[in-house]
Amino acid sequence: xxxxxxxxxxxxxxxxxxxxxxxxxxxxxxxxxxxxxxxxxxxxxxxxxxxxxxxxxxxxxxxxxxxxxxxxxxxxxxxxxxxxxxxxxxxxxxxxxxxxxxxxxxxxxxxxxxxxxxxxxxxxxxxxxxxxxxxxxxxxxxxxxxxxxxxxxxxxxxxxxxxxxxxxxxxxxxxxxxxxxxxxxxxxxxxxxxxxxxxxxxxxxxxxxxxxxxxxxxxxxxxxxxxxxxxxxxxxxxxxxxxxxxxxxxxxxxxxxxxxxxxxxxxxxxxxxxxxxxxx
Amino acid sequence: xxxxxxxxxxxxxxxxxxxxxxxxxxxxxxxxxxxxxxxxxxxxxxxxxxxxxxxxxxxxxxxxxxxxxxxxxxxxxxxxxxxxxxxxxxxxxxxxxxxxxxxxxxxxxxxxxxxxxxxxxxxxxxxxxxxxxxxxxxxxxxxxxxxxxxxxxxxxxxxxxxxxxxxxxxxxxxxxxxxxxxxxxxxxxxxxxxxxxxxxxxxxxxxxxxxxxxxxxxxxxxxxxxxxxxxxxxxxxxxxxxxxxxxxxxxxxxxxxxx
Lengths: 280, 259
Prior knowledge:
The complex is a heterodimer. By secondary structure, chain A is α/β, with parallel strands linked by helices. Chain A has 9 helices and 12 strands. Chain A has one domain: TIM Barrel (Alpha-Beta Barrel). In chain A, a hairpin with a 2-residue loop joins strand 5 and strand 6 (about 105-110).
């Protein structure tokens, strides 16, 4: 299977509707193993039926790649079994930390932009990669504040970890945009010079402006805005390959038909951006 | 490694997120950071960006409070009426007992914390049982499927035990938690023996059992054969077997195996 085009995150409110279809209404789905593994029952079987029928990419939420807490053997076993069962060509996680001292925040928290933190993240990525049956991708996150005094920029930190871990990049284009607004930089300049050859997948999503705090929040709770679509269209020819783009929606989830219509619009922008690019 | 600058920073963020009172951080973030052994440059950065780190505190707490509100609407109503829900959630988060990487485990962690901490039990002796009952629906609906029933008989017999479906729960409460509602959240003090299970279509069901039937299933779970159990309970085997066959047909029981 070739993963390309614009896919959609498979979400619980849409499961029954999606399962009832004869064919997938999208080129591929993305799903978080944490929301599926170790479960049973009729609704679980519904999900597994969809994943068996359709092409799927997996995306983890809570491995705390920059943290210190060890991964429980049963969690790793369940993850590995799930990746094999879905046939995903790769698995992704965020460059962040989520737990410390055994306490989980279930939030994507920024790493300090330091050499020590980069070394630590690189080691964790390499350790996890060695345990997985498929290549591993790291995703750049939205961050709202630096954690501690930075020794480098967020961009250079990401670059150092990607190169040091020698892993693939899940380029979240909305996160680049959100960070550019919150931290005042040009997202195209930010992307230029980054190792786009490492990009295997992209994420695109909506965000929310918090007036009181004066911050753009990566909520995945609204439609994608035009500047983010434009940024996707700008970077795709520079990547030079039709890498799959995943539309994320985790809050204020609308009817499936609404999301499919948004996906169609993104697909048109995707094809327009790649028209004329000779694919390797 | 835990003494590293990175570990100190992550530890400090956990303090900020989970400690019930953020006032000390809000009032003087630099001193707050100093007390957590952050190097001075890191403390200064945290102080400069303290409003954004308070935003992170809100994000983390909202993320963890959402499944509590979704899973425990009756418990929440009960405690909100006593202006104690926020205090309860604060105490739970301060316990730092959410350890699973699976988000669905936040609600079970709350029940486990209530059981371990005895929070509120003096004032609301039914609190733990009520919260346990509210969490049981999700536990049953998403419990792993049974392994194929190898060596199980479809028929009850005196020398066999009844085998519960792994998703079914045979529960005994000291309060009638099944009668509690958002409108009347306090359950009456009356024993409740409840069999919670899911059907083959995935729907959740609660059966109210008589004391002998509940005890019969409990004894089967402990490995006692139906014959001696029925004799000790003074129950009629014909009647009991008819009920057990119904349970089997409903998927409550996987079947019967030799004791």
